[in-house]
Amino acid sequence: MRVTFKVWRENDEVRGFRSYAIEANEHMSFLEALDVVNEMIIREHEKYPEGPIAFDHDCREGICGMCSMVIDGHPHGPRQATTTCQLHMRSFGDGDEILVEPWRARAFPVIKDLVVDRTAFDTIQQAGGYVSVGTGAAPDANALPIGKTVADEAFDYAACIGCGACVAACPNASGMLFVGAKVVHLAILPQGNVERSQRVSAMVAAHDEAGFGGCTNHEECEAACPKEISVDAIAKLNVELMRAAVRS
Amino acid sequence: MDLDSRVPSGPLAEKWDAHRFALKLVNPANKRGYRILVVGSGLAGASAAATLAELGYEVDCFCFQDSPRRAHSIAAQGGINAAKNYQNDGDSVFRLFYDTVKGGDFRSREANVYRLAQVSVNIIDQCVAQGVPFAREYGGTLANRSFGGAQVSRTFYARGQTGQQLLLGAYSSLNRQIARGKVHMHNRTEMLDLVLVDGHARGLITRDLLTGEIKRWAGDAVVMATGGYGNVFYLSTNAKGCNVTATFRAFKRGAGFANPCFTQIHPTCIPVSGDYQSKLTLMSESLRNDGRVWVPRNKEDVAKAPGDIAESDRYYYLEERYPSFGNLVPRDVASRAAKKVCDDGFGVGHVVEGRRNAVYLDFADAIKRDGRDMVADKYGNLFDMYERISGESPYKQPMRIYPAVHYTMGGLWVDYNLMSTIPGLHVLGEANFSDHGANRLGASALMQGLADGYFVIPYTIGNYLVTAHKGEVTTDHPAFDETQSAVEAKQAKLVALDGATPVDAFHRELGLIMWEYCGMARTAEGLKTALVKIPELRERFWKEARVHGGGDTLNASLEKAGRVADFLEFAEVMVRDALERDESCGGHFREEHQTPDGEAVRHDETYAHAAVWEFKGEGETPVRHTEPMAFEHVKLSTRSYK
Predict the structure, then answer these.
(1) Which domains does chain B have, with CATH numbers?
(2) Catalytic site residue B20?
(3) CATH number of the domain at A118-247, please?
(4) Over the Cα atoms of chain B, what is R_g?
(5) Mean pLDDT value of segment B129-145
(6) Which residue of A has its CA nearest to B282?
(7) What confidence tier does B150 reach under pLDDT thresholds 50, 70, 90?
(8) Higher pLDDT, B32 or B597
(9) What is the edge-to-edge ordering of all strands in the sheet holding B189-197?
(10) Which pLDDT band, with edges at 50, 70 and 90, does B599 fall under?
(11) Between chain A and chain B, how many beta carbons pairs sit less than 8 Å apart?
(12) Rounded to whole angstroms, how far apart are CA atoms B1 and A106?
């Protein structure tokens, strides 16, 4: 299959879209097809002075959260519940032109081409995304029974991979699904209960300070999330916020 | 080379306790005066950095990804072992120790493994306290499963994403210390060299991957938790960024490298589909609990659709060859059996480079027996992942799988305190060699990474600081100038590569050499061939490779070039180790040493030791030393799964 990638390039040489046509095959992953583009750029470097395309990636099995690109308008591309690295070329047709852009959000400045700076996500987690328990201070693991349904629900929220697709999909570039996922994961478990008020306040404050927008219920984040984290996280986050406000 | 293991004397079960008492403590008020440099933020690195900071040390932590949460520990699927005996099925610290030593085919250090089994129980407590959402029973207690053929249920798990949940737990502890200002985190920063002052590890030279700035860091001790070297094969289940650079450059500074030939090939991965393939994806070992492995009995059937092959024409080779363990034989045995049927011409699936390298993993019987819903409940996420990658549904037709490189048991040599042959350089997790011998059991990697980081290094590093450490060193010391100059010269050489061939092409070629001659089955003749081919490839790399762009910006081709250059040198050490170890054991299978029906034959009288390689200078052959492995508590025996 012949495909053309129309890719946003942003570096010292160029700022704008550039097109690259390659021969792909349906079993290739999307990132493998971009590898082919980059090898072509290096081999024919005189023709492509802008150099290879910079993009973030690492595990290539859908769990590290490093890959981040908007493909044909969708964060991580057209396939539901699939990260860019697990998207395969069989999702596209012969002759397709595929538009590839970086995450766009004020809190995620572009570093180069498709690579953005997601340090703000770490900053939010540092504000309170933990249980304050030092190594060695833990009681026996079975001393604290937790119902299966509670544990399963906590897992559903804890599955967030921190990729930022929720922000990229949101018209407000809000990171509320990301914040909600951690807040709710820890709030529904007894271990996280002690610090739940200060946690939610601190994480939301860090979120706002980093330049993310507010949530206005578009629910695009849920549709874009490769781990299918429910937008209920945001509703529950708001309950947690109110609870914290009432108690303080 | 000083290979004193420093294993304390006394009864096995009391060694760690006695040792902890014998270790010197650092006065709490003095801890803040020490700076520890931690390289890597996976399970071992993040847990060590967080715990050392909790104790009061100043910590700098480095990772090459954009966030510490992305370290490749995140991809571990199956679970983590612990001798909790919550299932009341006869597990104990001794049994976990015994299984791990035996599973490692008697090439690990008993005292280290026993300690690992002891602290395994604390790890689960710690992770639960952090809020790790392990699987639970309806009554609220933790659930366990049997894993990798173990006869007890001691594996704790969080769906198929245990590594992710444990890493995020360690990451949360790390974040708490970053917020307190006790850990200074340096993302997108790669370690390029180790700085030695008076023979001790006292600093690092790093490269900022965004600006290209080469920086120097001084500290009182260095902790490396930089993972394994599986990507020497190019194709593996490792993340693309995993590399040998940190450990190999420490090796070049004098750290002994132990058992580099011990590599683990995981039996159930999605097969290669073409020459563009960039990585291989693992399908959890748990699938073998219900899936049946087979190939066609007749070569003329290999191209047929699996549904068109009659039951009587299917060869369930694991069930036939190993009637008592069947599809649940350990990883090394299952992998070799798959290779054999494919080598013999019974492989199925796509033809890649003239061969069909895949076998079927079939769930039809499980679906018939338990129903589609129950199978979906257990394996649904894995089936979905398989379908995303292959475009085929395992509910309707068998999966196609083939072994792939997964884990490396070899690594930098460490003593009982996890210190390498360079004083002050401590090595944790997959980057060291000590606990898995020649074969790692399922669900043991997560256990070891966290044991080293949470419960071993926090005690042992203090003893080094009090007893062996030599005064304050700053980055003005001439050793930093010297090492930085060497790093800059090497970087300049890489940037100057202006041939026509992308770096990946050389990496791929190296991978093919390693897979062919130093993969699942090895021969003296093949290994000798590799020792000719690798230097030839290395020479071509320095003549023909192209690094595009300069060193002062985000430049993936430069990063890769540095890593591939190291793999091209390291590969030779690995092949030499495989050649010198003239026996079969665990993941190291020498075709010269097998029983008539193809089982591995160990030679304990000659090779019951760790082989430790010492760097002797550029272009020189490294020297092989040994640390004998004594087995006082687990009797040397032949593993049998028949």
Answers:
(1) 265-406 (3.90.700.10)
(2) no
(3) 1.10.1060.10
(4) 24
(5) 96
(6) A61
(7) confident
(8) B32
(9) B189-197, B200-208, B214-218
(10) confident
(11) 220
(12) 55
